[in-house]
Amino acid sequence: MEPDGHAAGGIVEENTVLHRVEALVIKSIDYGESGKIVTLFTEGAGKVGVLARGAKKTGSRYAAAAEPFTHGEYVFFRAAGLGTLNSADIIESHRRIREDLLLSAVAAYLAEMTDRVTADGEAAPRLYRQLLAALAALEDGKDAQVITHIYEMNILAHAGYMPVLDGCAGCGGAADDAAGFSIALGGLVCRGCAGKDGETLKPGEPVIRLLRLFASVDLSRVGRIDLKAETKETLRRVMRRWMDRHLDIRFRSRHVLEQLEQVGF
Known about the structure:
Layout: E1 17-31, E2 35-42, E3 46-52, E4 71-78, E5 83-92, H1 95-99, H2 101-117, H3 125-139, H4 144-159, E6 178-182, E7 187-190, E8 200-201, H5 205-216, H6 229-247, H7 252-262
Parallel strand pairs: 3-5
Antiparallel strand pairs: 1-2, 1-4, 2-3, 4-5, 6-7, 6-8
Helix pairs in contact: 2-3, 2-4, 2-7, 3-4, 4-6
């Protein structure tokens, strides 16, 4: 789609600047009778809000570009505050994700986490690249729960709430003596510290190894990982307990995801 040469639906205001960015749509909400306000997540400029006029209309040139999880190149005018979309070229629509109930719920959770932990205009290049890789991995059929937990680790790192995984969170002892995972103390704990609080989980060595892997792996390098149902359930419990206690954000999309899990998706 080619630029119009003027802001959609009107004259360009004085002092507006034309921006061209590669971005992911992490939020799209209806605006008025025919428009949408789209939150673009960019590598260098963080979150940017733009108005896509007419995006709700049948046949609109902005309709597909304003869909959640779309990766594209966006051109918009902006002076301050909300920008106005002028053109968009789609790089990857991630249509398969939107058409799959579970994948769309997972992607919505990843997008909402990103939106909630980043400020407007706050550059988060690693998070941007990891979100791109996470969506590509979901498209490729890789385990959605594994991808979710790895991205959650990226969110925790960005927000400053990573658990201690390279030693004992209680006494600073050796990493090879991990006997549990303490929600209260801040991560892995040794045998001596495992009984110091009432919130120490005992996930077992396989899960501890996975937590360390998830904290360090690049999502673009993740292959297919087959885990036992019991291991996956333990991982889910550990990660959700940690997220709820330390990040303390109630994600609406995770509630939807949990409902799907309960009915066997």
